[in-house]
Amino acid sequence: CVVADARAAQREIRRPDYYPMISGNNWLWPEAALELIADSGDPDQNCQNLLHEWHYNNAEIARIDVQLENLGAAGGAAPPVPGGRSPAPGAGDGNNPPRPGPGGGAPPDRGRPPREGSRADAGWPIVPDTWRAQMGGRGGGGRKDNSANEKAEREAREARKKAERIEQLKSRRADFVARNLEIEQILGDECGIDPAGQPLVDPYTQVFEEDVLPITSGDAEAVTLWSHDITAASGATYRYRMRVWVTNPFYGKAASLGEDQKHLADAPALASDFSPWTNPVSVFGDRYYYIVTAQQSDASAVIQTRARATAELFEFYYGYWRRGIVRLDPGDPLLADAEVPDLPLFSMDQDDKGAWTAERQDAALSGPRLIDLSSAFLLSVAGIPAERNQPLVYVRNADGQLVIRVPRDDRGSALYTLMSNSAVDGLTALVLEPGSNARRASSLPDSAPGNRPRPGERTPIGDSPEGPRNPNDTGFTDPDQF
Fold first, then answer.
1. Domain that holds residue 258
2. How far is CA 308 from the centre of its chain?
3. pTM for this model (two decimals)
């Protein structure tokens, strides 16, 4: 019977899954969707400081690695210590006279008898030592040997300094690595982000958990209900209210009731009062733009600069936000090509019984997609008097209004971060086959929350068995009757 079926499907009635989709992120229930948008902005100041410190340390580690590489890392082979090298042929050791032979000293005797007044061992005239010290020349080895020793000592000192420098660099590097590991732990535990500022766990794998208890149960302090408004239009804003219908426990039991209560058994279901109206719920538009960088003209500079700006344009297409980047001069329209991967096309047919079937076509949607916001254009760039390097960008919007944008604020907005992440995910996300029976709603109580990615790594959204969600569905929409 209907009542029995309703009891067996309490979760589906209270919190129905979102409609199956072949592309896009998982659908999130309203509270989680709003939290995701709020959390997409800049981290709090402490987390921001930790991010800056991590990136500074990482840059220092890279700089030290270059220095170690230039030093040979291990220091290379140490040069020989003083006294460890044999003297050159023909040179003395500083105490003994040089040996005769090639490279210095006297020529060999060749067997001739010694002449009077000459050295018996060399046949050369006797020269006083004081004269030889003043004359120098190739005959003595003491000065050359001293020079070699000084060079060896100098090389040894340089080797010791090099080894000490390498040890200092390695010690500093180890300190930076240890500190970054500590920062990564704090970022994960207290901020829930990695060093790139990205969530450690894909937010679209969140699971709504609430026991399905009877409304009349004393343990049911609150019951969460939602439905989906598939008529919501892009860019529109709505407010909603809700009431629920519950089965009437007195229905069909009039005989057991007093005369003044028999009317309670007339209706099979009872309606609650309407809830208060919700806060306004705004649906995303199709296209957005953000001014991410800008420079004002400066004719006084050595190299004159002209006013320019860089805009990032986003369009929601095939389940994700697609991004195009354009450089603008004053008067240029906002127009950019967005990178889009090859996307499949399907032909849909309906049989006699009303069932739909999908067939993948050979052709695919490929190539860049033009994001056309050309009805808006850049007017000018001016500086903020109180702040240097913070230009004001003047844009004429499609409705003719003059809008002032500050690049720093645009880059730091939560929606910009949300769309940027979606654009990155959309380049590699999987597209599922229509009717593939892949579960889509993250509201399922037994949904897998997904694996925790390593720092700096984003989980591929398309790999999740939960499938995508529709970013246009930003708030809960409920019918008057439940």
1. 242-275
2. 27
3. 0.59
